[in-house]
Amino acid sequence: MPQVPVPPTGAVRVIVTRPLQDAQHWVEQLQQGGFAAEALPLINIAPASDMEAAGRAWQALGGYAACMFVSGNAVEYFFKQKVAIAQEAHGRVATKKIANRTPDLPPSLRFLAPGPGTVAALLAAGVPAGQIDAPAADADQFDSEALWAVVGQRDWHGRRVLVVRGEGQEAGGVSSGRDWIARQWQAAGADVDFVGVYQRRAPVFTEAQVQRARDASADGSVWLFSSSEAVANLTGLLALAGVDWRRARAVATHPRIEEAVRAAGWGVVVASRPALKDIRDTLASIESLYP
Fold first, then answer.
1. Is residue 188 domain-shared with residue 71, that is, in the same domain?
2. Residue 55 CA to chain centroid, in angstroms?
């Protein structure tokens, strides 16, 4: 494995708040770009409490015109259930000598992704690139609105759409963008079903992590937020009650997230496209704009 370069003295300190697996990737990429990046995950990801629902969704995929995945985590946990079904089917073959009934990908099914991270997860899971619809790589934003701009003009009347998301992401919660696109489909005459394949939980911080968060509220570190839920989880931690965030700095990867960070009390908030190059450029500029 190639060694990650040591950030130079005085490099911008970046707190990456994404779930652990995603955060580690972003930390490595930012460190390679010369930033003193570290992970402080503000959302924990776990399997849904009812993974049998995902199994039933797999069995019914042939009845859908499109399947939207809200994130790379949605892809990962949904396709894990495909593997579980395959293993179960293999066991039946071994014991009953019957044909393998592992569900295949329906060739007419469109796989929808709000951004490049989810596209990469779909490709890694074996979905052909020709079956994936997503915003262009140079789109201003990667979200439900950008995805709808790509697929909204199609004939959805009488068609069924499956949205694969986190468990408990109901209307009015963190998945408001997902609910918005569901309403667009319904207005276009489609039937929309949902299946939750993972859970999003608030973190349980160690004393060292609590102290790091307190320090990062005033030591010039830049918080990288890609979720409004992450902001709420941080400020809702009892151990951080009373922290004054007015001296804290942040980069937010969506206008709704920017609003949430400002509302939480951050003194400096800069918006950025969620692409890595844009985030690097924004992080580099924030130091000169707000030393």
1. yes
2. 22
Please report the DSSP string for 135-181 in residue order: --TT-S--SHHHHHHHHTTS--TT-EEEEEEETT--TTTTTHHHHHH
Predicted local confidence at residue 83, as pLDDT = 63
Q: Rounded to the nearest 10 degrees, what angle do helices 52-59 and 72-96 cross at? A: 80
Residue 21 Cα distances to 72, 125, 134, 135, angstroms = 11, 16, 23, 24
Same-domain check for residues 141 and 217: no
Q: 110 with 221, same domain? A: no
Cβ neighbours of 69 (radius 10 Å): 29
Q: Do both 38 and 50 map to the same domain?
A: no
Please say if the pLDDT value at position 222 is more than 50: yes
- The rounded Cα 261 to chain-centroid distance in angstroms is 18
Q: Is residue 50 part of a domain?
A: yes
Beta-strand relationship, 222-225 and 132-133: unpaired
Residues 138, 145: Cα–Cα separation, whole Å: 15
Q: Last residue of a domain, which of 173, 201, 229? A: 201
To the nearest 10°, report the CA torsion of 283, 285, 286, 287: 100
Interior/surface letters 80-98, b for 16+ CB within 10 angstroms, e for the rest: bbbeebeeebeeeeeeeee
Count of domains for the chain: 2
Which CATH number is 137's domain given?
A: 3.40.50.10090
Same domain, 186 and 241: no
* Residue type, position 165, single letter: R
Cβ–Cβ under 8 Å, residues 225 and 268:
no
Considering the domain architecture, whether residues 91 and 143 belong to the same structural domain is answered as: yes
The stretch 179-204 carries a mean pLDDT of 94
Owning domain of residue 70: 46-201
> What is the pTM (predicted TM-score) of this model?
0.83
Average pLDDT over residues 172-199: 84
